[in-house]
Amino acid sequence: MKKGMIWLIAAVALLLILVRSLPFFVITEYQQAVITQFGRFIRAVKEPGLHFKTPFLQQVSIFEDRLLEYDAEPKEIITKDKKTLLVDNYSKWKIIDPKRFYETVRNEAGALARLDDIVYSELRIELGRHTLSDIVASQRGEIMEKVTQKSNQKAVEYGIEVRDVRIKRADLPAENAKAIFGRMKTEREREAKKYRSEGEEEAAKIRAEADKQKTILLADAYNEAQKVRGEGDALAIKIFAQALEQDPDFYAFYRTLEAYRKSLNDKTTLILSPNSEFLKYLQEVK
Amino acid sequence: MVRGWDDLRPKKDSQGEPPFQLPEIKWPDLKLPGPLILLAIAILLWLATGIYKVGLEERGVVLRFGRHIATTDPGLHWHLPFPIEQVFKPKVTEIKRVEIGFRTVESGGFGQAAQYGDVPEESLMLTGDENIIDIDMIIQYWIVDPVKYLFYVRGVDKTVQNAAEAALREIIGSRGIDEALTEGKVEIEGNIKGLLQKVLNIYDAGVQVGEVKLQDVHPPEEVRASFRDVASAREDKNRLINESQGYSNAILPEARGESAKLLKGAEAYREEKRRRAEGDAGRFTRILTEYNKAKAVTKKRLYLETMEQILGGMEKYIYEDKAATGILPILPLTREKGKETTP
Lengths: 286, 343
Description:
The complex is a heterodimer.
Chain A: H1 2-21, E1 24-27, E2 31-37, E3 40-45, E4 49-52, E5 58-64, E6 68-71, E7 75-78, E8 84-95, H2 98-104, H3 108-128, H4 132-138, H5 140-155, E9 160-171, H6 174-244, H7 248-263, E10 268-272, H8 280-285
Antiparallel strand pairs in A: 1-4, 2-3, 2-5, 6-8, 7-8, 8-9
Chain B: H1 2-14, H2 23-31, H3 34-48, E1 51-54, E2 60-64, E3 67-72, E4 75-78, E5 85-88, E6 96-100, E7 102-106, E8 115-118, H4 120-123, E9 124-126, E10 132-143, H5 146-151, H6 156-173, H7 177-181, H8 185-203, E11 207-218, H9 224-293, H10 295-311, E12 315-318, H11 321-327, H12 331-334, E13 338-339
Antiparallel strand pairs in B: 1-4, 2-3, 2-5, 6-10, 7-8, 9-10, 10-11
Helix pairs in contact in B: 1-3, 6-8, 9-10
């Protein structure tokens, strides 16, 4: 049992030495490499395929040849108008010069540390030149482009190309968000109030218009009705006049008698002269 | 493969083919090339590991010593076995999905609703008019270039997620909250899709963005009640207007009825007046006709009959004309009656 283990370990060690001692190595499509000898740079390998080296003496360090991501932690940045923004950005970068990369940052972890410094400082400078509304609304694209360019210029010395710096999130810290919520609330309350009073206004107008229409309708009707009534009165006068024209004297006599009958009743006290027409026979007898 | 056989053949031949004999005698002869047969089998097995299947949804990307040499279509293929060649099989027809603002915790099954978890730090964002909005978004994409997908960008799925989040915020940042909440949605989706595709092309990620869907767009929890109140205020406005229109619809017909009544009343009055006048006139005409026949006597009779009738119940005083003037002022003081005088 123990013997078997020892044999296994020996076999693995042998294999490692064998691989190390192989005079060739493979670079896959998404890789690149530098060959070093006792830590000294010998050459870079950018083409995929089978490559050769001096066994034992030379060492191969393989790097990524793909576009890599650096997703930074969200950071607070002060804008030109003295507002605090919580900015979460990511960068896309690539190792373009393996020699420099190897000599300056050695590996990806080292590169990320540098990138963090470069991108954060460029971002802080650039965002500090713009107001909150520029950053959020109008000029986000330009700002990101500028930060990308500047970061790229600085990253060259590490053999890195920064292809894109993108602001993923630019949000207000919780305290500021609360203020915004407050403002949103009052804005909406105002809007709601506006709608309701608009409704009332509109309704009042419609009611007033209806009342007006009603009044006009009734007045028109009164106008018409009065004319019709007048027509009736006129007709009556005409008819009467036509009839009475036949004998005005008799009408006067007849109508007077009728008027007597109606207007004089038992509540009337009458002082008569014996000379009156009615009493003329009374006197003759006396 | 052929080369492997060639290596093997001559060695086997060198052992010499034994003449045709009975099988029992053949066994010991085979003992000699035993290790070679084992080696041959091992080589065969090794070669067999190069057989691979490309599924319908996949493409085979073949690398020889790490260099891309071929892309194969669905079907059964063979490549030189491991250390020499290797194959990647990305799923090119698979539609991938990125969720922003939420995550599907448990996808829905038969009769079971899917479970979603909210991710507020992704879904809450600033709009162009400095309001905060809550958006959930889904993005679909697929691989169009398997070589780019595999070899140009590391972690494409994460890349799409990040770029999508950035694109969403960039587009929303250029809009007002009302636009995002209401009629602007379709346009916003189109803009996000365009921007995201542009960014992914800069990265050379080899993917195509399909549908971009704003799943759920609403005001943040803290202000949702106020937004709802605006909606109900809008309803209130409509209600008030409708009510007043109802009022208008009620009173105007009423007024029309009223005016019709007035008019009809007036017409009735006119007709009544005319007919009565005609009646009265007719009566007079008839009386006149008879009167004309015996004028004097009729006139007398009418006068007397009238006097008889009216003087019947009346209080009467008869005085000489001169005396009457003397007594007249006293009369109203003694009686509480109507005062009438006739000459």
